[in-house]
Specification:
By secondary structure, the protein is an alpha+beta fold. It has a domain of about 60 residues: Alpha-Beta Plaits, CATH 3.30.70.20. The chain is about 25% helix and about 20% strand. The chain is built from 3 helices and 4 strands, in the order αβαββαβ. A hairpin with a 5-residue loop joins β2 and β3. It is globular. The protein starts with a helix and ends with a strand. About 20% of the residues are buried. It binds iron/sulfur cluster. Iron/sulfur cluster (SF4) binds next to α2.
Length: about 80
């Protein structure tokens, strides 16, 4: 394999310009509606206390759209995204 071939198979997260998506839950705001879990079951889950938790941190690129959809449906704006 040549150096050129190796460059074509870079790690998927590097395709985002090296930035990794994180999702933050404001536990004080979360009211346990579960809409985030319904919209993005690979990203969110409710814990035993009925508070959303993030299952993947950082969020893999393959789940970024699902994560954003989950953030958008929260009726109390308890979820936000950040890049690191
Ligand atoms: S949709 Fe919002 S309020 Fe409902 S469980 Fe998810 S984070 Fe909590």
């Amino acid at each position: 394999m040549t150096g050129r071939t190796q460059a074509l198979v870079a790690h998927p997260e590097q395709a985002q310009g090296g930035k990794l998506m994180r999702v933050i839950v404001d536990e004080a705001r979360c009211e346990g509606h579960g809409l985030c879990q319904d919209s993005a079951p690979d990203v969110f889950e409710l814990n035993d206390d009925g508070v959303a938790v993030v299952l993947v941190d950082p969020v893999p690129m393959a789940l970024s759209r699902q994560a954003e959809a989950g953030v958008r449906v929260c009726p109390v704006a308890a979820l936000s995204t950040a890049e690191s």
